[in-house]
Amino acid sequence: MSEITLYTKRTCPYCLAAKALLRGKGAAFREIDIENNRARTLEMIERSGRRTVPQIFVGDTHVGGYDDLRALEKQGGLDALLTAEV
């Protein structure tokens, strides 16, 4: 299974929703809180090309934000991505 990485902020409702969706799938993830951390914020922007949180990666695949994650789940693609071998 690929490592899941989420760039988040504590007060972000979309971050909370993304974590809840992933927990509901039984998926473990690594959370990187970028609040007040300029280096991590720059890392997220460089890696994703976006400035908003959450930014979600499954392995090297950039899923996007919460809306992208939810859409992938609705389309039935999230399970396949989460169980793909690295």
Automatic annotation (TrEMBL):
- Record's CDD domains? GRX_GRXb_1_3_like
Q: Which residues form the Glutaredoxin domain?
A: 4-63
Q: Name one Pfam family in it.
A: Glutaredoxin
Transport recorded as keyword = yes
> Do you know which Gene3D superfamilies this protein is assigned to?
Glutaredoxin
Which keywords does the record carry? Answer: Cytoplasm, Disulfide bond, Electron transport, Redox-active center, Transport
NCBIfam families given in the database record: GRX_bact
Q: What does the protein in this record do?
A: Has a glutathione-disulfide oxidoreductase activity in the presence of NADPH and glutathione reductase. Reduces low molecular weight disulfides and proteins.
Similarity-based family: Belongs to the glutaredoxin family.
Q: What is this protein called?
A: Glutaredoxin
